[in-house]
Amino acid sequence: MTAADVLDTERDALCDTLHEAGPEAPTLCVGWLTADLAAHLLAREKRPDAGPGIILPGPFARHTQKVMDQYRAKGYDVMVAELRHGPPRLFRAGPMAALNVVENWIHHEDVRRANGQGPRPADSEVDEILWGSLKTTALIAKRKIKGAGLVLRTPAGAERVIKQAVPLVTITGEPGELVLFMSGRQEAAEIQIDGEPEAVALIRATKLGL
Question: In this structure, which CATH number among 3.30.1050, 2.60.40, 3.40.50, 2.30.30 belongs to the domain 125-205?
């Protein structure tokens, strides 16, 4: 199965969850309901001009919000149906397919976990993509973490060094749980964290993700 195939499966599952949850269900994204999350996904994929405002403040963020509002005005069922058609070709090609699997997976969990659902059954193909994404995460997180080192470890023993430093903190969990933690969703991630208390506190206090 290719990353594009995994993306199709994950997108269908995400749309099923959005449909079941309805437009006013909570998500892990602060201030967003499910309708806002659906609008974000559509703006991200179909309106490149809205992309900078996902990260940048000021006029960029205001423009992105305007685009999201335009999608919301179409109605929730229309948005979910449009999402179900799948992402544009760009998001299904080469490395972008894997990146979009991670984006969709995280936002799917944003809905599931905020509504009382726990981890899904392990899927080796999804886990491989999620684990691989932590290479890029390491490049971003390394600059943010101060005063401690961090290693991610799966129950099977695979390791990813985020930052080599002393004191060292080790976080153990399935790939998806590690992705949630490193994307800033620390409270939702089912992980075990080990290290000196002061170092653990530093890691937990670090603003991870974008």
Answer: 3.30.1050
